[in-house]
């Protein structure tokens, strides 16, 4: 079920077709009614039974194909009747208004027979049809009303005449309406009030429509509600008329010129009681409900294709929606959601989606309440790990309705294949996953909580049953805000495929435990030594006394051997929030897995770090190699020319020229105590030597100038 942008959801979006069955005693006019509808005139000759009639969707008011089926006791068996009852969506019990026997058979035969063939909880809607009204001057409604009050499955009663074509079209319209807009799920005639499921659904709709969360629907909110449900706004006078009707019947239906929840529910009760329950059904279906007043799977889980090696993230429009949702429920404007405010937010959910572990997964304030940043982080985490659940949650909040989008899928960005990122050496992703691996009690939990700015003292207050294996927060890399998602991987001999899948790996060992590093080294060799996933080794609990690790080589030598950054000292035993240097480094490595970035001061943001990273970049290395090759080729060509001129010289001279070439190759870009370039070549004239040295120095100077200019540009850009 997908409602188009701004288009109210019609019953046609819910039902494929409607099947109407006409039953009743012989000679009450069932076949005549069908033939009069089709031919628009009373038939002179009536067959024993009419063939099944199909009315196209474009002819019916609700745009739904309708099948009309006749029953003839003379031509059909009881078994065939039972089969037709089981296939029908609505049954019209026809009686003749001038035949009391046919009226009595409605309760003595037909209603019991139909109810026996249907489930008690899903009774078929019934329409009582009084035919041949042209033969009498009185109405049968006095006799029929007690029957309608006795059987709640009876939707309505219509008196008609096949001969005069009176109410023929209305009869089948009401039959179709009984299927597409049934009264049963909405209203209880005995209690004369809406059913609990209907009240619950309309309450959710009211809370979604109350965009400022003040408990009333103001004129702007009512107009928006009217437009998205019925595709037309209300005139100011019409709004006042609606409010006056509510004020007339209930005292607290309108407050501060806005419609309260009680007034909203009263209006829909009034619609149903006056036979306009299609109005209520239009609203319910626009907000995703089916005939049983459950949110449909098509509404909660719209189609979203995710190719392999791609991830899911929230886009800009989704973050704007979540920001407005947070502001709507942050009543005290403290940029955090208290337990009561969070509970109020989740009133539109059928259950509480977040457990106590969420408070240890995202940032909270000093009271332990989820902050604005933590709120967005949790949604980012859900989108990355379980996008279907994210779609479900956005559906409960009414994302597609309030943003007037086709579905919640419009809130999701599916990133491109990671292989393409590696090929292009750049990424468009904003969320990066880091698997934190290490022995038990090595300090992994401390690393996760440090990402949320919590030192050791705050971590000790976390209950064991409230611990989380995830932590997510924003990290700034070169002025760009990115999300770093940490996942604590439990200690095991071998990691599963899911535990290996990530953007960067954080291998944690305890500096005070001599057996701790061996596990990290073994996991690295088993799973990551030959992979393209960057790894960073973290020396946790660096405030404690460091002991020698029981491994063949030291952690520093291990990193040097495998061309990894040196071990990063880390501790969360600090007075303030722990340092976030390792998280910046991890995010940078995840963003640029192809580059070996080294930051001497570990900030990755200062001018020095930008220069260091640029000097070590593939781009500059490529430029240097091209200049080296060009200069070398030029020198070789010049020496070859000199060799041809001096061919008459002795053999020793040629040997000296060959040595000169080797000497030139070894001396390019190598600093010497005697100068930047030291060339020796016999028979090289002083002018040629000066010319080659000049061009080499000019090329090198231009490269240095470009590097410094780029560094200054980045520094100025960062300040802005």
UniProtKB/TrEMBL annotation:
InterPro entries: EF-hand-dom_pair, EF_Hand_1_Ca_BS, EF_hand_assoc_1, EF_hand_assoc_2, EF_hand_dom, Miro, Miro-EF-hand_domain, MIRO_dom
TM spans (from-to): 694-713
Top-level taxonomic group: Eukaryota
Record GO terms (molecular function): ATP hydrolysis activity; calcium ion binding; GTP binding; GTPase activity
GO biological process: establishment of mitochondrion localization, microtubule-mediated; mitochondrion organization
Entry's EC annotation: 3.6.5.-
SUPFAM superfamilies, alphabetized: EF-hand, P-loop containing nucleoside triphosphate hydrolases
Primary location: mitochondrion
Chemical reaction(s) catalysed: ATP + H2O = ADP + phosphate + H(+); UTP + H2O = UDP + phosphate + H(+); GTP + H2O = GDP + phosphate + H(+)
Domain Miro: 15-181, 429-592
Compartments (UniProt record): Mitochondrion outer membrane
Keywords: Calcium, GTP-binding, Hydrolase, Membrane, Metal-binding, Mitochondrion, Mitochondrion outer membrane, Nucleotide-binding, Repeat, Transmembrane, Transmembrane helix
Domain EF-hand: start-end pairs: 317-352
Topology within the bilayer: Single-pass type IV membrane protein
Listed GO CC annotations: mitochondrial outer membrane
Purpose: Atypical mitochondrial nucleoside-triphosphatase (NTPase) involved in mitochondrial trafficking. Probably involved in control of anterograde transport of mitochondria and their subcellular distribution. Promotes mitochondrial fission during high calcium conditions. Can hydrolyze GTP, ATP and UTP. Atypical mitochondrial nucleoside-triphosphatase (NTPase) involved in mitochondrial trafficking. Probably involved in control of anterograde transport of mitochondria and their subcellular distribution. Can hydrolyze GTP, ATP and UTP.
Protein family per UniProt: Belongs to the mitochondrial Rho GTPase family.
Assembly: Homodimer. Interacts with the kinesin-binding proteins TRAK1/OIP106 and TRAK2/GRIF1, forming a link between mitochondria and the trafficking apparatus of the microtubules. Interacts with RAP1GDS1. Interacts with ARMCX1. Found in a complex with KIF5B, OGT, RHOT2 and TRAK1.
Protein name as it appears in the record: Mitochondrial Rho GTPase
